[in-house]
Amino acid sequence: MTTVSTGIRIRRDGAVATVILNRPEKLNALDRATRWELVGALRAVAADTDVRAVVLTGTGRAFSAGQDIAAVEELEHADETVAGSYNPIAQTIADMPKPVIAAVNGLAVGAGMGLALVCDQRLAADTASFSCAFGKVGLVPDTAVSWYLVRELGYARAFSFAASGRPIPAAEAHRLGLLNEIVPTDQLAARAHDLAESLAGGPAHALALTKRQFRAVSEISFEAALALEARHQGDAAGHPDHVEGRTAFAEKRAPRWA
Q1: Which of 74, 87, 124, 127 fits 170 for a cystine, CB–CB 3.0-4.6 Å?
Q2: How far apart are CA 137 and CA 71, in angstroms?
Q3: Same domain for 86 and 210?
Q4: Is pLDDT of 127 > 90?
Q5: In this entry, which stretches build a coiled coil (predicted)?
């Protein structure tokens, strides 16, 4: 089933929902309307109990070129634009209690790079590229780009990419650890769907707790991380999925998750 709006499409296939940026003529640039459609789409699939994994991708030759620079009025109060619509996108992906896979089909520039980085798994076409290009228009990184680049690359490399805004080809992004996989362009959609199906077939409750735990540990002390692990383990062990997993292990069969 496919749901279509002006700038966003949602395609559902079993337990997998694919959210598609659908402004190919604008390189899937994000104007206010598209951002709010995207927030709405992400919140809808997050709340849909039949959806157990999500793919985020784009149409055409771009994943997303980031902010639609033609929407000049949105940058007159850029702090409100970022806080009011970009931050909710990043927060919704981060908080969603199910895995989100970025299938980067082409250019991922500025906030488009942020959309990819905030996802839990990142696949890219071999022709894709990334660019922290905010500085080229006199702006600073947003949409969680600074959070992920500094943590995953270190300050010096992150600053270098932001200061230069140079394109980072998919192969280089993979070497740097920003991508899980590079896939031939014509195989990207199928590979992303297969990965999403695999995750959707896993223990949803345990995966949700793992996602929450891994996103929390960089902000808390070692002792607090140990306490969080213990608390989440108690939660997971009390869930029917654990009983099923333990039983399946003893019976030497594949588990049938709730």
Answers
A1: 124
A2: 14
A3: no
A4: yes
A5: none
**Which tokens in the block code for residue 224?**
């607090």
pLDDT digits (tens, 9 = 90+) for 43-87: 999 999 999 999 999 999 999 999 998 888 887 888 999 999 999
The set of residues, in sequence order, having a beta carbon less than 8 Å from that of 113 and lying 6+ positions away, is 66, 130, 131, 132, 143, 145
User: Residue 208: which domain range?
Assistant: 204-251
Residue 132 counted as domain residue: yes
Query: 105 near 57, Cβ under 8 Å?
Result: yes
Contact 55, 13 (CB under 8 A): no
Confirm whether 258 is domain-assigned: no
**Coarse DSSP helix, strand, coil percentages of the chain, rounded to the nearest 5 percent:** 55, 20, 30
* Same domain flag for 88 and 169: yes
Token duo for residue 114: 């942020």
**Residues 115 and 238 both lie in one domain:** no
Angstrom distances, CA of residue 250 to CA of 205, 222, 237: 21, 34, 16
Q: How far apart are CA 92 and CA 26, in angstroms?
A: 24
> Across-strand partners of 182?
124
The tokens for 85 are 């619509």
Asked whether the CA dihedral 28, 74, 96, 123 is positive or negative, the reply is positive
